[in-house]
Amino acid sequence: MHQSTDISLHVRRIITAVLLGSCFISLASQTMMVTALPVIQNSLNVSLNAVQWLTTGYTLIIGIVTPLSSNMYEKFSNRHVFIGIIGTFIIGTLIGCFANNFASLLLARLIQACASGMLMTFQMTTMISIYPIEKRGSILGLSSLVISAAPAIGPTISGLILEFLSWRWLFILVLPLMLLAFIVGYVMLPNFSTPRPIKIDYLSVLISLVGSALALGSLTVFQINVWVGIAMLALGLLIIVAFTKRQLRLKNPMLKVQIFAYPSFRWMTIVGIFTFMVLLGTEQLMPIYTEKIIGMGSFLSGLILLPGAIANAIAALFVGRLYDQYGSKWLITIGAVIMLVASIPLVLVNQHSSVILLTLTYMLRMIGNAFVFSPALSEAFSELSQEENSHGTALNNTLRQVFGAVSVTLCVVIANTPGSLVTGIRYGMWATVIMVLLMALSFFHYLRIKQTRKN
Fold first, then answer.
1. Which end of the chain has fewer CB atoms at under 10 Å, N or C?
2. Angle, CA of 107, 109 and 113, to the nearest 5°
3. In terms of DSSP H, where are the helices of 327-420?
4. Cβ atoms within 10 Å of 225's Cβ, excluding its own
5. How many structural domains is the chain composed of?
C-alpha cells in the first residue's frame, strides 16, 4: 500500500468524491425500503414479518460480505475492486427494476447488499490509507457522515418517490446514478494499492454466512415456534464461535479477530454498534407508527425523518473536527445525554401524539447519534497500524451491520407482539432506550480502562 504522502491533493479529492458519492447512494438504498414496506406488503400480498427482510436481509448480507472486503482489498488493485463492486450493485438494481414477485425483489436487494457491504469497507480503508494520520478524525467524520446520513435520508427520498410512482422506481432512479459512478471510477480512479497473492478461505465465508443467517433468522422464527427459534439461535451462535476460532488459526484470516485485543478497538466498536442499533431501530419504528397508526402516506412518513437526517449530517461534519481537537470523552457523553432526553416522548407515544413533537424528538436523537458515532469510529482505529486498517474496518462494519439487522428485526418483532400496535411501538422504543444505556456503560468502562493504563 502506498503511503498517503505519495498521492497528490487533486487525486485525493477525486478519490474522496467518487467513493463518498457511490457509498451514499448504496447506503441510502439500504433504507429506502423502510417507508416502502407497507406499500410492498399490500402490493405483493406478503406479511410484515416477511417484507421486513427487504431491510433486514440487506443489512445482514452487508454484515456477512464485509469481512471478504479486506481480503479483496489485499488480493486485487483498488481500481478493480471498485469497478467490480459498482458493477455488482448495478446488476442487483437491474433485477429490482424488473422484479415481479417477492422472491425476485428480495434477490435484487441481496445482490445490492453484497456490493454495498464491500463498498463501505473499501471507502473507509481507502480514506484512512490516503490521508495523513493527523487528518484521521476529519476524514472519518466525513465517512461517518455518509454512513449515518445516507441511511437516515433514504426513507425520505423513497417517501417522495412513492408519493408519485410505484416502488419499482426505487431501483429505476438509482440505476443511472450508479452507472455514472461506474463510468467516473473507470475513467478517473487511479491505482494506488499493490495487490498481494493471498488465498481467500471460502470455508470461512460459508461458515459466517450460515452462522449469521441462522442467528438472525431465529428472531423472526421465535414468533412462529419458540423452540425452533431457540435451536436456530443456539446453532447460529455455535457456528459463529467456530468461525472465530478458525480465524485465530489461519495465516491469512478472512477477518483478523486478534485486533479485538486492543481495548480502544474493542470497546469503541461496541459503542458504535449500540449507536447504530438505536439509529436503525428508531428509524424502522417511526414509519410503522405514522403509516399504520396515524394513517399517513409514505411521503409524509419519510418527511418526518428528514429534519433528523439533515441535523445528523450537519452535526457529523462538526463532530469529526471537534474530535481531532478534543478527543472523544465529552463528545460521546453529551451525545448519550441528548439521546436519552430525546427518548422521553418516544416511549410515551400514543394515537394522539403530536407529529411535530415526534419530528423534533427524532431530530434531537439523531444529533445525539452524530455526537457518539463519529468519535467512536475514530477512537476505535486509534491503536491500529496501517496494515490492520482494512481488517479493522471490515470487522467494525461487519459487527455494526449484523447488529443493525438484529435491531431492525427485534424492534419489528417487539412492535408486533402485543395485541395493540401502539403498545408494541412503545415497547420497541423502550428497547432502543436500553441500547442507549448499554452504549453509555460500554463507553464509561472504556474510559476507566484508558485511565488505568495511563496510571
1. C
2. 115
3. 329-347, 355-380, 389-416
4. 11
5. 2
Residue 194 lies in a domain: no
Residue 273 included in any domain: yes
pLDDT confidence band for 136 (50 / 70 / 90)? low
Q: Please state, in angstroms and rounded to a whole number, the distance separating the CA atoms of residues 105 and 208.
A: 24
Residues 326-382: tens digit of each pLDDT: 777 888 999 999 999 998 988 888 888 888 998 999 999 999 998 998 888 888 887
Q: At 289, is the pLDDT very low, low, confident or very high (cuts 50, 70, 90)? A: confident
Domain limits for position 231 = 201-253
User: If you search the block for the grid coordinates 428508531, which residue do you land on?
Assistant: 282
Which letter does DSSP use for residue 4 in this model? G
In terms of Cβ atoms closer than 10 Å to its own Cβ (0-12, 13-18, 19+), residue 195 is middle
Gap between the Cα atoms of 146 and 127, Å rounded:
13
How many whole angstroms separate alpha carbon 247 and alpha carbon 268? 21
Q: What is the mean pLDDT of residues 68-95?
A: 84
DSSP category for residue 189:
P
- Segment 206-227, tens digit of pLDDT: 887 788 778 777 766 776 777 8
